[in-house]
Amino acid sequence: MKTARLLVVLGTLSAASLAVADEGMWTFNNFPKKLVKQRYKFDVTDPWLDHVRLSSVRFNSGGSGSFVSPHGLVMTNHHVGADCVSKLGASDHDYIKDGFYAKDQASEIKCPDLELNVVVGIEDVTADVKSVEKPGMDEASVNKAQKEKMSALEKACTDKTQSRCDVVTLYQGGVYNMYRYKKYTDVRLAFAPEFGIAFFGGDPDNFEYPRYDLDVAFFRVYENDKEVQPQHYLKWSASGAKDNELVFVAGNPGNTERLDTLAQLEMLRDTSYPLVLGELKRIQKALQAYGKLGVEEERQARTPLFGVENSIKAITGYLGGLTDAKLMAKKTADEAALQKQIAASPDKQKLYGGVWDAIARSQKGYASFYKRYAFTEGRRGNPMSSELFGLARLLVRAGEEKAKPSEKRLREYRDSNLQSLELGLFSSAPIHDGLEEALLTSALERLSAQLGAQDPIVKNALAGKTPAQRAKEVVSGTKLKDVALRKSLWADKKALDASKDPMLVLARALDPEARQLRKRYEDEVEGVVKKNLGLVGKAMFEAEGLSHYPDATFTLRLSYGKVAGYTIDGKKITPFTTFGGLFDRATKAENKFPWELPKKWVDGKAKLKLETPYDFVSTNDIIGGNSGSPVINAKGELVGLIFDGNIQSLPGNFVYDDTVNRSVSVHSSALTEALRNVYDAGALADELQPRGGAAKKRSAK
Q: Distance between CA atoms of 441 and 472, rounded to whole angstroms?
């Protein structure tokens, strides 16, 4: 049985195929140096990898970034930084709509709850995690024991190093790595352009190409009220990305399903994605209606609406891949071929013959309770799409979880993660009652419609009221907007249990069944999948070692590729757009939303070199979470900024196709020219690309 064949059935390509395709979101401790050498004649050295790794940053709000100056300046996308930018705004200063530029460091504004992470160490702890598995243990017991071991390892690492330590599950449970992070929580906004240019073309152009977006934001990192001075940062390329040039992307791709079996993909196609799309469209409708109430309401709803609409388009693309007959036929044929090979060998049949049936049974069981699980536990533990409900659930569960030893808690409450939880829990970011009420009303309406008015969960949630009445009651009655109160409850289980705060009462009403369903998922689905796909992973490693990349896990990865156009329906798409193309696009659209240029761009046109490369595409393999990733040339210089993929890249969640799969980036030349000639931000541009010297520090005065 060839390992290459195993990977085909699980949705990736063989090592031979990878040699002629720019596929893979590779871990830094298992980067395919030989493949890059073979394809691009470039030697990737360990010092080069270390430099890129230590220059790369993860935004815990969801996204990637990089240090780009010796004075702690970090670059990411506008849409990655938008959570902070929006929270810093108010009715009299709309930083999302109008942009922001700090003329000096003293004018930079601290984000209320943003955490950045830099990977400073990676250690293989597979043997430690797997050591808890004993003969005769069922999947649920193994999964539970391994999670407890992971939490214990993380606590020991954090206690020893004072770092953030996360045990990361790779290859669906075949490998476990300890990622050790340097954590930064004093992060200040330095620059963000107007929404109209960061998201030029709006939802119609999202995931499309050609594109004309300046999707960028700059933050500065501080410790002890002083700027961080990183030893490693990415120097700015004078010329930027060039056609057919080898480029790398370092970032934190969130999630892929390339190693999933056919049964798992069918579960996503038939059950999970349709329900998630329904939820997203429900939230979209609620946000749109709220935004129409007034200027301030529109400002409050804008950033979450962008995120929801982006997710709708992404998941629609994923679903399109799974409803593609050719893609699914290939998956089916490959899986059948591997099963036939295994059946021909008694030894292999004994080890691996039951893998697919076990996973298929788990997915069938999962489908039977998925809806109930989604409406009680929800994505990221917040089924109500409400900040206040999320805070209430966090507090309610903490009251029970913090009383347990770290390794016995729900994973998010382990000691090594508590500081990150507290950063969000104690955030001073504003919470808007009107928006909260609109979102909670919509969620309760959906809960009632999906589960039925007589369902015990629905009855507990509504407490005899209509969804609108209940939402108004709990939002207007809660005191959880008070940070001091949240801090006092976090440390006092007795006070939590006795509290009559209506939002806490609502969270308590939903929590028992949510916990039961979560345990059922972990025991009957997660544990089964980990054990059985882990067996396949074991076969891979025994045959060829770690010669393949794992699915994405929102941890640091490195992809390689080249700047290259592509052909769709016989039409050649060139790799670059230009500033001139931006103005042509706006003119053809009569400068109307969402192709309306901000005033600074209209006024600054005469100062710009219209032939300057603006956005470009490359073959780098990325997925959601890579937003904000730096694009790096062979010299280790920054040549661009990832902000999107084309529509053809969305089925890349399952299978990569190098003929049309493209990542979309802002060109480094466009970034500095826009800073100098549109925003009068020459000091910031000089920090990135010094004129005749080292990067200059902007005055703090």
A: 8
Burial 481-515 (b: 16+ CB within 10 A, else e): beeebbeebbeebeebeebebbbbbbbbbbbebbe
Cβ atoms of residues 229 and 73 within 8 Å? no
C-beta of residue 232 within 8 angstroms of C-beta of residue 54:
yes
* Count of the separate structural domains present in the chain: 2
Domain membership flag for residue 299? yes
Is residue 627 scored above 60 in pLDDT? Answer: yes
Within a domain: residue 275?
yes
Q: How far apart are CA 560 and CA 40, in angstroms?
A: 10
The dihedral over CA atoms of 40, 43, 48, 49, expressed in degrees to the nearest 10, equals: 70
| Any domain includes 337 | yes
Are residues 627 and 682 located together in one domain of the fold? Answer: yes
pTM attached to this predicted model: 0.94
The residues, any chain, with a CB within 8 Å of residue 257's CB and separated by 6 or more, are 11, 264, 265, 268, 551, 653, 654
Residues 361 and 411 reside in one and the same domain: yes
Please tell me the predicted confidence (pLDDT) of residue 352.
Answer: 84
In a domain, 155, yes or no: no
Q: Are 595 and 562 in contact (CB under 8 A)?
A: no
- Which pLDDT tens digit goes with each residue over 234-288? 999 989 999 999 999 999 999 999 989 999 999 999 999 999 999 999 999 999 9
What are the C-alpha distances in Å from 566 to residues 320, 366, 621, 633, 661? 20, 40, 15, 21, 9
Write out the residue range of the structural domain in which residue 516 sits: 262-530
pLDDT at site 505 = 96
Q: Which amino acid is at 109?
A: I
